[in-house]
Structure formats: C-alpha cells, structure tokens
Design a protein that fits this description.
13 helices, elongated, five-stranded mixed β-sheet, seven-stranded mixed β-sheet, alpha/beta
Length: about 375
C-alpha cells in the first residue's frame, strides 16, 4: 500500500513540474499582453474575457470539479493581473500619496499633542492616550462623533477611538462614523481591559441591584452580571457610569469601570477583573486630519465599496492572496440608501516599504467601485 502511495506522489510530482512550465509560459504571454495594452493604452483588467474564461474552464472541468477549477483560475487571473501591472509599471495615484506621506512625516511619533477622547476623566481612551503620548493635552467629547468632528475642525491634532474588542467584537458606531468623516489612522494600540465593579464606600456586593456601564463593557461582563442577578443599565461610557454612581448617593448602584475611575471618583472596588474572559483586549485607533506614516509602519487600513455582483469580494481577497499580503481584519457595514449593499473595511499586514503594497493599490484602483485609504501605521501594546 505504501508503495502505491509513493507511485501516486511521483506522478503528482511529474504533473506539477509540467504545470510549473505551463505557468511560466502563460506568465510570459501575459507579460507580452501587458506590453500591448501599454502601447495601445488599454486597461489591464479585461472583465469580459475573464468571465468568458472562467465559464469555459468550469465547463471543461466537469460538474464535480467546476467550482475548484473556477477558484484556481480566479487566483491565476489575479496573479496575472499583478504581473501585468508590474510589467507596465503604471503608477498608483493612491500609493504615490502614501509614499509622499512617508517621506514628509517626521521620523518620530510626537510625544505631546492636543488629543480628543470620548467620555470624561478616567475613560479607557484616556488611559490609552496617556500611554501613547508623554504629556498629552486631552480634551473630552461626549460622543464618538464629537471626537471625529474635533479632529476634522482642527480643534485637536489627534483623536483616540475604540474600534474592536476581543470579547464583544467591533464597535459598530465607530465603523459607521468612519465612512462619514475625513481622517487618517496614524497609530493603533491594543490594551488589556480589566473591568472592576465600583461602588460608594460602605456598599457590599449584596447591596448592589443595578450596574451602570457602556454597552461594550456590559457585553464583556455579561456572564458575571447574569450570575449576580443584577439589572444592567447602559451609560454613555464607563467613566461617566462611575461618576453617576458617585453622584447618586445610592448603595444599590455600581459601575463597571477602570481602577483609575475608582481613584478619580473616590469609589470602592467591590470586585476586580469581572470580565468574562481574562484575555479581554480592546484595540484603539489614533486618528488625525492629515495622513502621517512613521518609519516601520506595517499595517494598512482600507475602505472599499464593491460592485454588487457575485465574486466581487472574492476577487479582492484573491489579490491579497496572490501578492502574499496578510488580511487580519474584515468588517462589513450596510451602505446608507442602498438596500443589501455593503461597504467593506480591511486591515492588512504588510510593510510600508514592500513593493507588493503598490501592486495591491494598482489592482484595487482598477477593480473596485470606491477605494479609500485610511492609513498605514504601526500597532503598539499598552
């Protein structure tokens, strides 16, 4: 039996060798086609021909293998387009902006800046801000929209916003606002979140009947709250919840918040680390009005609107795969006024210096309905 398997593998090796030779021949012809397109001012993407080819190979493969053949050729076509772009050496206007931004940005992230945070003193965004900057001038705004507006109006150079949590998922409100405002992500930060149950001094656990906090914190501590059998009430943010407990005078009320809030508002910590998962991390983004790219940046965020037809998202994913670019985040949000159509948010891991990044922008500019570059940056642990 083992000898039979070795024979099968030897035959597979022979076929693979032939396939590689055919692949090389196909890519050589693809390069010649690229030169013709360049000389005659034709686009790299020939959508009609690609559809015809995919239909033909699916039929030739037979019913059982039709889907596999289509997947194989979609990837092959993505590689071919990338090869043609490299041959033509057409410039990407978006990548040109990225390169100029990298050249024009100072080599060091600024230690001090006027920065907008949502909430009040003690908010987790403030804790992140204090770790990103040595001496920030923090200004607080009641809503996430207020942070975006402060940056857009130039009141603050930067803004700090939570974007996703490892337990509760994405902060949907921030994603929705990202499509409404002009901004650039210049840094991201990942911080472990430890929620504490805070109350007025003299309160016992048995006294607490209601808990205030932001909806994300409530979600992250849902199991604990259910076991305690208490009412959960949503507040605008965790720091405001702590202040509300301080001002309420009630011993049946507590807040899910940070240790900093306990110190700032003179509250007692009834229970520590009550989140359902110990590995509870929130990712924050630092935004600015003008794009900035600091040396070593290796994460790029994009927002895409794709044609509303089968295979549109797969075609984008195949570009990343063909270029060896690691996709680390994909989020979809409904497009206002367009039923059952979506905007897609991508986080990609690739060095700002990698040539694959330019090829990616060339491909995306040619094949998407709308492309927005949101920033290229580094992520730090807080």
């Amino acid at each position: 039996m083992e000898g039979e398997l070795e024979q099968i593998r030897a035959e597979l090796d022979r076929i693979d060798k032939e396939l590689v030779e055919l692949f090389r021949a196909r890519m050589e012809l693809s390069g010649r086609a690229a030169e013709y397109k360049r000389d005659h001012n034709l686009p790299v993407l020939a959508a009609g021909r690609e559809r015809e080819l995919l239909s033909r190979v699916s039929g030739q493969a037979g019913d059982e293998l039709a889907g596999y053949a289509q997947m194989l050729y979609q990837t092959l076509l993505a590689v071919s387009r990338a090869h043609q772009h490299a041959k033509i050496e057409a410039g990407s206007s978006m990548y040109d902006i990225l390169r100029r931004t990298l050249e024009d940005t100072a080599p060091l992230f600024p230690p001090r800046a006027v920065t907008a945070c949502q909430g009040i003193e003690g908010a987790y965004s403030q804790i992140v801000c204090d770790k990103l900057f040595k001496a920030p001038d923090i200004r607080f705004y009641p809503t996430f929209a207020g942070v975006f507006q402060a940056v857009e109006r130039g009141e603050c150079r930067y803004g700090i916003l939570p974007i996703e949590n490892s337990t509760a998922g994405s902060v949907k409100g921030v994603y929705d606002l990202m499509d409404q405002y002009n901004f650039s992500i210049v840094r991201s930060a990942r911080m472990k979140i430890s929620h504490n149950l805070l109350s007025l001094p003299g309160t016992t656990l048995e006294d607490v009947k209601e808990v205030l906090s932001h909806e994300q914190a409530i979600s992250q501590c849902a199991g604990y709250l259910a076991r305690r059998g208490v009412k959960a009430t949503v507040a605008a943010n965790t720091a405001l919840a702590a202040r509300m407990v301080r001002e309420s005078g009630r011993h049946d009320l507590a807040a899910l918040s940070s240790r900093l809030c306990a110190e700032h508002y003179g509250l007692s910590i009834l229970a520590e680390n009550v989140q359902d998962q110990d590995s509870n991390y929130t990712r924050f983004i630092c935004i600015s009005k003008q794009p900035e790219i600091y040396p070593g940046a290796d994460r790029t965020s994009l927002m895409l609107t794709l044609p509303h037809r089968p295979g549109s998202l797969y075609n984008v994913m195949s570009i990343f795969a063909a270029l060896g670019i690691n996709l680390i985040k994909l989020e979809s949000r409904p497009l206002p006024g367009r039923e059952f159509e979506f905007m897609f948010y991508f986080d990609l891991e690739e060095s700002v210096y990698a040539p694959e990044l330019e090829r990616m922008f060339l491909e995306l500019e040619a094949g998407t309905e709308r492309l927005r570059w949101l920033g290229t940056y580094s992520e730090v642990m807080c």
